[in-house]
Amino acid sequence: MAQDSRVTVWLLFCCQALMNSTMVGQVAMGALIGHTLAEDKTLATLPMAVQMTAVMAASIPASMLFARLGRRFGFMVGACCSIVGSLVFAAGVWRGDFALYCLGAVPAGLGFGIAQHYRFAAAEVARPDYRARAISLVMAGGVIAAVVGPELVKHTREAVGGVLFLGTYLTIACLPPLVLLLLSFAQLPPAPARPKISTPIGEIIARPAFIAAAGAGLVAYGTMNLVMTSTPIEMMFCGFGVDASATIIQIHALAMFAPGFFTGRLIQRFGVRTIIVAGAVLTAGCVVANVAGASFAHFGVALALLGLGWNFMFVGATALLATSHAPEERVRAQAANDFIVFGTVACTAFLSGALHAQAGWAMLNLMLLPALAVALGLVRWQAMRGRVASA
């Protein structure tokens, strides 16, 4: 990787850290605020569901922005959306208005959805033999978010006017402007040349590598979000306070992103499919820990395993996706992948509160196992198709 490329990857690492801090803080607060403001408690996770729907909806507009105006402009638009979202969240909390609070999830989700493309930008500036490492390094920016996000919640939740969490959202609104500053120094690829003949999107998504990558990615993110979103509520039912749930989310976020410093090397050594399988096994371990008990240690171990499993599966899926398309197809393939992945995440966020309220904590966790089996089946199928094609 050339020197300029390394600098760019580290700048993207910092941008990812700041944008993820807004989301990690929201995860620690969102369900608790929703449970407080909503008259119907099954709607407690609705703000997160709206936010994840906006993340999904951002996929297509983001691809158009990147294709026409380049990565830098697109990422700047995302940062501005995040600022607006934080301020509307703050207004909803200040007024005690659940509908207004849910409205803030729209621009916040659009900003976070655009930020998901930092990993793709890293893959584009890196040499092919360093691509997996660049992807995992940028995603490791979440390590900083894992510390910053929950700590912001702990130290600012009562900072303004006695309104719980108002100070937190006003503080979070100060993070995206730092992203705008960092982006001004990043050497990002310009808008790609538009091919004379575009490959039909149906042909791209029908490729075995795309199917396996999207399948592993949606299962990784969907199962993680299903459990993560409901954990603060379950901990509240078990007698734990805001600080305890914020600490558990912090442990979870560290486990999600810290492996990014070495996941790329593991993929280079053991292969992308082996890492995806390892991630599925770790996620299954989360189910076992959550079903086994309801102590602080059970929640901590479960969410740590969930974070590790997500990292291995999602980074592996992103690396596999990079093998499924030609350079001129990358923006469309990435947009289609994120639309599928975050569409599933939105569904799990909508279902999380209702499943937790109606089916219970244990059943919510056990539902992860069939999904993990499907992901492993797709990866196995893609490997078999690859061997047949090679032969």
Task: Kindly list the characteristics that best describe this protein.
single chain, about 400 residues, mainly alpha, Growth Hormone, Chain: A, 19 helices, about 0% strand, MFS_trans_sf, transmembrane transporter activity
Can you give a write-up of this model?
With about 400 residues, this protein is mainly alpha-helical. The protein has one domain (about 5-390): Growth Hormone, Chain: A (Up-down Bundle). The chain contains 19 helices and no strands. The protein has helices at about 5-35, 45-55, 60-70, 70-95, 100-115, 120-125, 130-140, 140-155, 165-170, 175-185, 200-205, 210-235, 240-255, 265-270, 270-290, 295-320, 330-360, 360-365, 370-390. Helix 13 packs parallel to helix 16, helix 14 (about 265-270) crosses helix 15 (about 270-290) and helix 15 (about 270-290) packs antiparallel against helix 16 (about 295-320). The longest helix has about 35 residues, at about 5-35. The mean pLDDT is about 85. This is MFS transporter. It holds the Pfam family MFS_1. One of its GO terms (molecular function) is transmembrane transporter activity.
Summarize the SSE layout with pairings:
Blueprint lengths: L2 H35 L8 H12 L1 H11 L1 H25 L2 H18 L2 H8 L5 H9 L2 H15 L9 H7 L2 H9 L17 H5 L2 H30 L4 H16 L5 H8 L1 H21 L3 H26 L8 H29 L2 H6 L1 H23 L1
CATH class (first level) name:
Mainly Alpha
Model regions low in confidence, pLDDT < 50 over at least 5 residues:
none
Average pLDDT metric: 87
Return the CATH topology: Growth Hormone, Chain: A
Q: How many individual helices?
A: 19
Q: Which value, in Å, is the CA radius of gyration?
A: 20 Å
N-to-C SSE string, H for helix and E for strand: HHHHHHHHHHHHHHHHHHH
Pfam families: MFS_1
Organism: Plastoroseomonas arctica
GO molecular function: transmembrane transporter activity
Protein name: MFS transporter
